[in-house]
User: What shape does this take?
Amino acid sequence: MLSSVVVSCSLSLSLPTFAESTIESSESQYLQCDHVEELDDGGKIYVYYIDGIENDFPVPPDGFNPLKASDEELATYGFPPKPEDVKELDEWTKNMSTYKYTPLPVVEKSNVVRDIYQPTNKETLKADSNINGLESTTGSLNWSGYVAKGNFAMMQADFVQPTINPSNPSYTHESTWIGFGGYNSKKLVQTGTAMNTDDGSKNYYAWYEYLGTSVAYPEIRFTNIKINAEDNIHTYCSFQKANNKFNAYVANNTNGTSQSVLVTLPADEYFDGSTAEFINEKPTVSIDNGLTNYGTTNWTNCQIYKMSNIWVNLGSTTYDKVIMYNSSNAKKAEPSGLNGQKFTSTWYNY
Assistant: This one.
């Protein structure tokens, strides 16, 4: 077991060099860590208390190689666990082999809030019996994608970060994410990337978020994980009910950086493992001109870990297809048919 020593958190390690204190703006707030746990292998865990909730950002030591790491080391640093199945191990190895380093965490809380599934007044259509696994197709004001149904503990997906259309107006927003819950309850934990056009600029970034039965906190950004259009993104999240830990992980396989966080959350308040989502979302913001024109998102490696201790493709589960509409029932985004662990999501309207 890795032992640790607790030391104070140097501000220069937790914030960008231009930040001399906690920075606030109308859109975001940089946060300062509370303390650092120095591990005996040279790694560190930067501990933040955000709205009273402990968020731990582990940073492995220089030279860390997830391909050679022990199961304990992978768990300590928030990496996806090494699978036993040969096929799954090949996919895991491909993702982990791109890893170069984890930057020191720069943690930013914004005013963007994602929401649970919001249905439209479109009729929910029961699926044709010859489509294996598909239970129904439903409309949503904010989601487009697939919702797997079952009893889940871990999940992952890959996608190519879409490019914001050059003709896109200012103040549009889109989020591509995986997560648990939010379909049948108010509980939702999630992580992914976003593409926004506030003030006419084109912004891409990684983030995570957690919503409970009584409170919905805004997104927290992995600011030091740089996201650009056309980057290859790997996402992973899990929830351990036994120790109330939510693990979110985003890796940019194009530049070799990744960031994970382990959040202490009461499972009864935040975790609903009865559904697992693969979603393009129109989030809620104060100034809004609609859903960012992302063209097409190519989703691959969409998998869920069942409580029976096996990884399964999204297409091997019972699932719902979700199409996004506006309040006038005009289509905004729609996923393609599902091919095992792959599908595409297409933008139609702001």
